[in-house]
Amino acid sequence: MAKAKKGKSGGGGGKPAEMLLVSSKVRGMIKDAGCNTAGDALDGLNGYVAWLIGQAAKRATENGRKTVRAHDFIVM
Questions:
Q1: What is the structure's pLDDT at 13?
Q2: What is the secondary structure of 6-43 as a DSSP string?
Q3: CA–CA distance from 15 to each of 12, 57, 61 (Å)?
Q4: String of b and e for 24-34 (b: at least 16 CB within 10 Å)?
Q5: What is the rounded CA–CA span in Å between residue 42 and residue 9?
Q6: Could you tell me which of 17, 15, 14 has the C-alpha nearest to residue 3?
Q7: What pLDDT score was predicted for residue 16?
Q8: How many CB atoms are closer than 10 A to CB 18?
Q9: Kind and range of the H or E element at 59?
Q10: C-alpha 3, offset from chain centre
Q11: What do you get for the CA distance between the two ends of the chain, in Å?
Q12: How far out from the chain centre does Cα 21 lie?
């Protein structure tokens, strides 16, 4: 799979080209919570994580930084 090229804003539409999560860790946390993991759950979470990263990168850029900090992930 080829990665989609993104603009400088870091914006992010669509699915990421690769899995950003450690599947066994996510599945373990879900199991520890007493739930089962659906086949598409990791894809949905992976897409959400990619969106969060894009939003954080956009916020850092808009604030004149190239470094993404923890507070850039806070969604209000």
A1: 56
A2: --TT----S--SS--S-HHHHHHHHHHTT----TTHHH
A3: 8, 17, 22
A4: eeeeeebeeee
A5: 26
A6: 17
A7: 77
A8: 9
A9: helix 41-62
A10: 15
A11: 33
A12: 9
CB-CB contact of 24 with 73 (8 Å): no
Give the separation between CA 60 and CA 75, rounded to whole angstroms.
13
Each of the 76 residues of the chain gets a pLDDT tens digit; together they read 344 444 444 445 566 779 999 999 999 999 999 999 999 999 999 999 999 999 999 999 999 999 999 999 987 6
Determine the 3-state secondary structure of 66 from DSSP.
Answer: coil
* Contact status, residue 20 vs residue 50, Cβ threshold 8 Å: yes
Query: Which of these, 63, 23, 17, lies nearest to 41 by C-alpha position?
Result: 23
Quick one: pLDDT at residue 7? Answer: 43
